[in-house]
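pasting for the record
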Amino acid sequence: MTELRLLSYNVRSLRDDAQAVAAVIRACRPDVVAVQEAPRFLRWRSKRAALARESGLVVATADRPGGLMVMTTLAVKVVGTRFTLLPRTPKLHQRAVCVADLELAGARWTVASIHLSLDADERRRHLEPLWDAVSAPFGRLVVAGDVNERPQGDAWKALAARLQDAYAVGPGGPGDTYHARRPSKRIDAVFVDGGVEVIECHAVGDVDGVEVASDHLPVLAVLRVVST
């Protein structure tokens, strides 16, 4: 069976070391990257395109609000994309859900990139519209991103109640993702539906330059479809 190598990465708007971000992505050899804090202001399209090009990938989605993006290799067929703005709370950042329907070697995947709020109440309020945004998936569902809380949090527990926490079921190394220079918190995650086997999942902290690329470590999950 074909495996999917999926990377989830908060790149902090490429404010640290954009070349290091691309080098980290290349080293992980992903088929798909769910990006959070993608550039969203001046020349955001060209910055995203440059990141994809330097990472050996292409941009699969093109929505600016929320700072979300999905990138893929050329081996992945992008069947469709969807984008949903989540209800905004005054004085807080706009949050969104970015979804790509993908095919790789005959396997179908629906990959959603998310970046939940810093505010716990807003995180809880966004759960229902998040589920609406990923309903009726094209393929096996993967929700990946920056949850902005630990596994003990209400939003995390709600996500893990409906989907598998990939690291919890298939740990393949360290789990903590923040801060990249001295990781002590697991606040980034990959969640997958019950039809997905998690071969392994872990934070990537052993690649040259990862500590200066962003303030988050990326999460790598190796996945396989086990039922349709």
